[in-house]
TrEMBL record:
Quaternary structure note: Oligomer (believed to be a pentamer but probably hexamer).
Organism of this sequence: Forsythia ovata
Protein name per the record: Germin-like protein
Alphabetical list of InterPro entries matching this protein: Cupin_1, Germin, Germin_Mn-BS, RmlC-like_jellyroll, RmlC_Cupin_sf
This protein's GO CC annotations: apoplast
Amino acid sequence: MALNFVQSFLLLLLVFAFITAVASDPDITSDFITPAYFSSVINGTFFTFTGFRNLPDPINGTLMVTKASLVEFPALDGQSVSMAVLKFPPGGINPPHTHPRATELLFAVSGTLEVAFADTKNVLYTKQLQTGDMFVFPKGLVHYQYNRNHKNPAIAISAFGSANAGTVSVPNSVFGTGIDDEILAKAFKTDVATIQKIKSGIASP
């Protein structure tokens, strides 16, 4: 039986003990951290995130990611957790990337997803997830998610072992940051023209 969005969140909460165990954020010596700029009275509103209430749908076939990290949800500071909702259009991809400060635990809410990561020995681990499956991406390793279904969308929820997991896009960091064309051509054993063609399709950060 397919799980609805609320049930998905409840299930993901059960694995937060795991997320905390592998967290990389420093321990704090208080119950929570209040931002210096925060002048309002601390109540339940401070600890509430409402950004997942009305999630936008993908536009023009592009992956839509809605985050609840330290930037969007200041109450997470020092708590070593964050989350994101990923809405994949048919055929949508979350390109190869890394999270340098956190392990990621992904839960497939609806649809199917191909997921994979490569370890430090250049071994690729792949799996086709069904609705209700979970997959863990070890901290710092290159990984991706892909909705191979070109007719139906897919939704996933990711939990991270850091309030600020960070994201490093492999295509953007390699081809969109100004690394010299000749260096990239030698590294990828190709010619400069090919590198320039790839760069023309990469948005600068």
